[in-house]
Amino acid sequence: MSAAEPGRPGPPGRPGEVLVSFREVSKVFRTGSGRAAREVRAVDDVTLDVHRGEIFGVIGYSGAGKSTLVRLINGLEPVTSGSLTVAGVEVAGRTETELAPVRRDIGMIFQQFNLFTSRTVAGNVEYPLKRAGWDKERRRERVAELLEFVGLASRAGNYPEQLSGGQKQRVGIARALATSPELLLADESTSALDPETTQEVLQLLQRVNRELGITIVIITHEMDVVRTIADRVAVMQDGRVVEHGPTVDIFARPRTETARRFVSSVMHTVPDERDLERLRRAHRGRLVIVDVGDGIDIGGPLSDGAAHGVRFTIAYGGISVLQEQSFGSLTLELTGPDPAVQDVVEQLARVTEVREVAA
Ligand SMILES: Nc1ncnc2c1ncn2[C@@H]1O[C@H](COP(=O)(O)OP(=O)(O)OP(=O)(O)O)[C@@H](O)[C@H]1O
């Protein structure tokens, strides 16, 4: 298994085929000894599939277990229990020697780039090729090809300290791609970058995925990163995957409080506590938050309500488009006779998710 090289179109990938499979995977760190002994369940009973050819996002707050989850994939941390396979090969319980062939097919990039400061840009990219035993001429060609792909051909002789953060990450990406891995793990790869540079690096990762057919698992605490490039996403909290699915579904219908908070950090369609306080002061009627989007018809219940003396006002909300689907939420104030308002709320609940704003 080996991904296409820069310059050549990559395989389109076979959507749906599983590349990484977690089955009831846990990772427990044990620190200290005697009375100071402590156990941290960094990854707790995770069952999850990453499909070949996709960009899979892992989002969570600090300490949720994202880095540990991803480090299990290439065996940087051994699994405590459960089964974890990469391209059908079991990773759990393997020795370092047994892991070597699996690792050859996995590249990794890091938040702090982890470049060798004493080597040039070309030297950094060449390093994994040397380790893999490539001869000098092939290494030279491959390095040139990779630097061309990431747009740094003119910086081959520079040292990392002469580069911007975004350029350093592009060197990190070229180095990670050197031996044509099938899977790229990106650990907070844009967290040290400003918003504009973040977009540049994300666009490059998108090209790595689309043009070279490389599957990407990207860890982040920024929902904007997920929105920009992830096809599917897992939301982590306290070591557990509390929600996962296509990015559009998580955005359109977040089911857990954690996912809702991440979505509202970029969507601003759901009022936060401060907004709610203001809304309660400004609106005396019954306030409900309803999810809206393609295929959700809230017009029916609202027109029926109007026929029974219920008026509605849009107090807050918005609608956006992601991957060609529209979704969002509206906060409605309903006024009128109590039984008729109650009837409208029940009718709305039949067509969409309705959350009541407590008075
Ligand atoms: N080597 C280790 N020894 C002991 N505990 C660890 C170790 N690595 C991680 N942990 C603990 O495991 C939990 C999950 O950490 P992890 O770094 O995976 O989370 P994260 O979501 O990636 O957080 P961050 O975004 O801050 O890196 C934390 O409680 C952390 O302190």
Automatic annotation (TrEMBL):
PROSITE patterns: ABC_TRANSPORTER_1, ABC_TRANSPORTER_2. GO terms for molecular function: ATP binding. SUPFAM superfamilies: ACT-like, P-loop containing nucleoside triphosphate hydrolases. Pfam families: ABC_tran (PF00005), NIL (PF09383). InterPro entries: AAA+_ATPase (IPR003593), ABC_transporter-like_ATP-bd (IPR003439), ABC_transporter-like_CS (IPR017871), ACT-like_dom_sf (IPR045865), MetN_ABC (IPR041701), MetN_ABC_transporter-like (IPR050086), NIL_domain (IPR018449), P-loop_NTPase (IPR027417). Residues 20-263 form the ABC transporter domain. Keywords: Amino-acid transport, ATP-binding, Cell membrane, Membrane, Nucleotide-binding, Translocase, Transport. PANTHER family: AMINO ACID IMPORT ATP-BINDING PROTEIN, METHIONINE IMPORT ATP-BINDING PROTEIN METN. This is Methionine import ATP-binding protein MetN. The lineage of its organism: Bacteria, Bacillati, Actinomycetota, Actinomycetes, Micrococcales. The gene is metN.
